[in-house]
Amino acid sequence: MSAPLTVSTGAEYSRLMSVASFRGSRVVDNAEMCTHIDSSDEWIQQRTGIIERRWATEEETPAYMCVQAASKAIERAGLEPEDIDAIMISTVSNFRQYPSLACEVASILGIPSPAAYDIRAACAGFCYGLAQADGFIRTGSAKHVLIIGMEWLSRQLNMQDRGTAFLFGDGAGAAVVGPSETPAIGPVVWGSDPAQHDAIWTNDWFDALKTGEKPVVHMNGRAVYLWSTTFIPEKAVEAVAKAGITPDQLDVFIPHQANNRITDSILRRLHLPDNVVVSRDIKHMGNVSAASIPLAMDALLESGEAKSGDNALIIGFGAGLVFAGQVVVLP
Ligand SMILES: CC(C)(COP(=O)(O)OP(=O)(O)OC[C@H]1O[C@@H](n2cnc3c(N)ncnc32)[C@H](O)[C@@H]1OP(=O)(O)O)[C@@H](O)C(=O)NCCC(=O)NCCS
Fold first, then answer.
1. Hey, whose CA ends up nearest to atom 6 of ligand 1?
2. What three-state secondary structure class fits 138?
């Protein structure tokens, strides 16, 4: 018989220790958007809730945005860069294939030798990362994990497409996850609908080289809307049940900021009491894919609408189509 292997074991539980964010500094309101597409402020607000979105300037590169958010998150966690054992960055808008953005950002932050890689799970990416971090900490693969959601989606827009151009924004949100003495990250509910892999997509870079046209986002808005308002509300209910609580024991709801009408349909299914704080960060930020949830979480904590220790349901969903959600205790 072969010699038995040693396996690692970690903390009993994990928790969010901190969250921080960076918003692209250029404010683009609906009036400016309507100089590019045939639309109106009223139509955009009524269909999505977006009043304005934030876009990165040329200097606010993917690495820059990540570093701004992450350095603050590490400081807020009371840690030093050398305390980080693993860094993962969720993004679908870093145009360089390799090295990973995680390695570049780790180098700038001065994290000496973390496990480092990028995740490509679109708008569910932050919740995918959190599920992985929770697993690493509880199995002893890492003690402190840095997760960043970063997007520069304004670089992927077709400014002539009235079905997508007005939706997206740029920014980064970062969180540090570490060991906990009490349960603070509920079981993840995640998965995908591969049959709808072409509901949101960009052109292939290799094809782009042949045609000379940069890859831009394409979306079957109606299909995504239908899936998000029928399938996702059921998954939100499941995430709450898996955490062993009832919806009335939630304090905060932070859905991916895709569209206020999608948020409303999840709310109707959850039957949340009126006192539950619901994020509407999309109003001033647009849809920032993997960065949406940490950006929205940081905003609620900064404004005092949510507080440390609150139970929050987070759920992300988007291109793939993919989804992931869990109940967390806010840092
Ligand atoms: C994108 C979205 C807002 C478009 O709304 P919609 O109601 O589906 O829009 P449709 O394409 O069906 O068009 C409906 C009408 O609005 C018009 N329209 C479309 N885009 C418009 C725009 N930007 N401004 C004004 N009118 C517009 C259409 O011409 C159509 O007019 P008609 O009824 O006279 O023919 C909606 O599909 C959506 O929110 N989808 C989910 C997208 C999403 O969240 N994706 C990210 C997930 S991570």
1. 222
2. helix
pLDDT, residue 308, reads 98
Q: Nearest residue CA, atom 22 of ligand 1?
A: 39
The residue count of the chain comes to 331
pLDDT (0 to 100) of residue 1: 83
Which amino acid does the sequence have at 134?
D
Catalytic sites, residue numbers: 123, 256, 287
pLDDT digits (tens, 9 = 90+) for 197-250: 999 999 988 888 899 888 999 999 999 999 999 999 999 999 999 999 999 999
CB of 41 closer than 6 angstroms to any ligand 1 atom: no
DSSP type of residue 307: -
28 lines ligand 1 (CB under 6 A): no
Give residue 167 CA to ligand 1 midpoint distance, Å.
Answer: 11
CA of 226 to the centre of ligand 1 (A): 12
13-180 and 189-329 share one fold = yes
Q: Which amino acid is at 277?
A: V
Q: Where are the domains of the chain?
A: 13-180, 189-329
What spacing in Å lies between the alpha carbon of 2 and ligand 1's midpoint? Answer: 61
pLDDT-flagged residues of the chain (< 70): none
pTM for the model stands at 0.96
Q: How far is the CA of 282 from the centre of ligand 1 (A)?
A: 17
Ligand 1: which atom is nearest the Cα of residue 39? 24
163 lines ligand 1 (CB under 6 A): yes
> Which residue CA neighbors atom 42 of ligand 1 most closely?
221
- CATH class, range 189-329: alpha beta
Which CATH number is associated with domain 13-180?
Answer: 3.40.47.10
> Which region holds residue 140: left if phi is over 0, alpha if psi is between -120 and 50, else beta?
left
Give the closest residue to 118 by CA, choosing from 139, 134, 104, 108.
104
- Output helix, strand, coil percentages for the chain, rounded to the nearest 5: 40, 25, 35
Q: Quote the percentage of the chain above a pLDDT of 90.
A: 95
